[in-house]
């Protein structure tokens, strides 16, 4: 019964993609939904894109073992990121009338920087998309009994089909449906499992000393790790195309900006539900934690110890979260490939041709992500890896290029190169201070020095 319901849901999702395809008449319809999204839709689609399997299958495992410190990267970092985007980036970038962040880099620093930043963005998405495919494989293994490779290929096929057909319209409509399922599914599971315990208050108060500590131990290594956790998404995800693709899809700058803030609030609040469910799982079935696989903590508990209706709704919610994140993650690099790598090099390309090649880019991105997924099955690690490259290469050129008139093309190149090299070298030497901190500081220093020296040379 559970497997049948999941399969029917997958078919229904494909049906939404087919229906949404009727609204695709141009490349802008495909990539930005015709710039017709409201504040609510912008917020919901960012929420659904970012509320991926790490919130349900990754973070709860860290939370029950490490306390609040295990949630800094996802729970707090995503909120920080979206508030910063809404406050310092959204209005100015929307006013430029662009489609991708690489469009900004072209306007501000030239076509060569556009190409370099486009390649960096595309590369950064592969591990993130791979994480979603791995999560789908875990899910299908529990529900359908498939192997990990089979689950990866099945999940990738479903997401590719409806994203290929419906583009941003399909992503938005399925995100709306999937957000409702996520909240309903997690809410029902929470009510049922907490009912088997002494209540939420007992779960959250009966914790070891230091469980809710918001600051690390007073030593250099601990503070380095702590800052790196905040930076991973809090700063690293700021140059992410999927945020701005939804921002630029809004009817106005203010509606887009409001949607970004709404997404941050939703992610933080609804992100608390799996954490409480994880505490209940530890209380009711401690052997699940002893097994050492935090990624399967909640799915295994739901599969073994809840009623069939709850299992159907929970796994529907989980698959919804993964599908929405996968589709949004694939559409973003495909848009960059079409707009910033293909269009500038194909003089005279028609909008119809651009639409076709953007759709084909969805397929290509998915194929490469499958290779990543088949070689690394750690969800949380894959997701964090995807943000590091953006932070050490693109955060400085984006931030200073947008807010500092003195930023130059030489500075952008220095920021990209110095940030990447510094991060890579310090990572190889296993430094006490986290390599992402070195890389990010080096990138900002390179931006400043390169811009200043370029003007005085």
UniProtKB/TrEMBL annotation:
Q: Name one Pfam family in it.
A: SSF
Q: What is its main location?
A: membrane
Q: Where are the transmembrane segments?
A: 41-64, 76-94, 125-144, 151-171, 220-238, 259-282, 312-333, 354-374, 380-400, 407-425, 437-454
| Subcellular location, record wording | Membrane
* InterPro entries hit by this protein: Na/Glc_symporter_sf (IPR038377), Na/solute_symporter (IPR001734), Sodium:Solute_Symporter (IPR050277)
**Might you report a single GO cellular component term?**
plasma membrane
Gene Ontology terms for molecular function: transmembrane transporter activity
Q: How does it sit in the membrane?
A: Multi-pass membrane protein
Alphabetized, the UniProt keywords read: Membrane, Transmembrane, Transmembrane helix, Transport
> To which protein family does this belong?
Belongs to the sodium:solute symporter (SSF) (TC 2.A.21) family.
Give the protein name, as stated in the record: SSS family transporter
- Organism equals Neolewinella xylanilytica
